[in-house]
Amino acid sequence: EAGALWGGRFASGPSAELAALSKSTQFDWQLAPYDIAGSRAHARALATAGYLDDTELDAMIAALDRLESDVADGRFVAAESDEDVHSALERGLIGIAGVELGGKLRAGRSRNDQIATLVRLYLRDHATVIARHVVDLVDAIAAQATAHPRAVMPGRTHLQHAQPVLVAHHLLAHAWPLVRDLERLRDWSHRASASPYGAGALAGSSLGLDPVQVATDLGFDRTTENSIDATASRDVVAEFAFVAASIGIDLSRLSEEIILWSTREFGFVRLHDAFSTGSSIMPQKKNPDIAELARGKSGRLIGNLTGLLATLKGLPLAYNRDLQEDKEPVFDSVTQLEVLLPAFTGLVATLQFDEKRMAELAPQGFSLATDVAEWLVRQGVTFRDAHEISGELVRFCEQNGLELDEPTDEQYAAVSPHLTPDIRPVLTVEGSIASRDGAGGTAPERVAEQLAALTERTAGL
Ligand code: ARG
Question: Domain named Argininosuccinate lyase C-terminal: which ranges (predicted)?
Fold first, then answer.
């Protein structure tokens, strides 16, 4: 059969049904530039080992360059009969260089070591793109924090008012997980910097080709240690899918808050027209679709990861065709993040916060009750008693429709003699926030330091 890489021992070509099942060019064509880069490196290794003379090497490289530009401008595309990107490109190379020269390139390599190498090259490139997008998002969050240095909001646990915090502090709490994702990508890229090329089908090559030469040529730091592991493992792919899912989850958690914040009931933010959508029937609507798509896509990213892990489980060494199923999920994770992150960053960068509304809500729900208890502790009351007294004050206020700072001096004293009028300065949102000034706390000077630390941590990523 024309173009197949393995016809020799078969009396007939593959059935149409098998060909339809087996074919992967519809998704692995994206790897074509990496396959060609691998071929150039492999050609040079063949030349070093004496299998191509200088003239042949020059002709081979020229043919591969030509093939690369033909692929880039769409003059060369996969044919219906091509099994995969590797077969298609060999067909293309032979078309340019002739079968005499083109037929020499495959010596000493297998699609098994090729594909393991190409997927790493692809992911390394896209890791850089995704990291840049995540840095942009972290910057957008930091810019919002910088723009609202004193704004306050109700901090929540269990979605109930808990303690007031700075808006900047809350926003930065969404930035740090993304910074850790960036660090995960950096750590991942170290593990992904080993080249499997030269592992052959599973056992290495007998032709004396130098895997280190190929690795260096392709921009890897080193080669894989074990040719079986090199062709059989995909944890590098799964780990990338994990980081993608983690980014998705981080986006999804911020999305959920943006969706809530933009409701009439919360009213904390307004969405920019350019980053929100309307309704086909309800003229008044302004919907947080970007946040909802982020929340939805995070499920998809998790699915890509878990599907991949399930594919890997129980596979015997070394290569099995199941491994072809690694690509579509991880390619999808890449595609989704690359389209999602810029839109999401735009959404965050253009959020308009209603500082007045948030300030109004910050002290409500008795969110200063902990401040009452901690003030009592500073007066020498045990925390156990202080908690009890503060709780009784909350109950008194709730029964009488008052906020914590509204009872008279006499009413305070009736709840507990420890509640003297000196407590009043503590019962402000600003006082509460300023007092939480330990490392990592919400006090304005700590948050300013945190912003500086964030910028510094992100600089190298
Ligand atoms: N398309 C395969 C994959 O994605 C690579 C080719 C290896 N095929 C084979 N029959 N050994 O994993």
Answer: 366-434
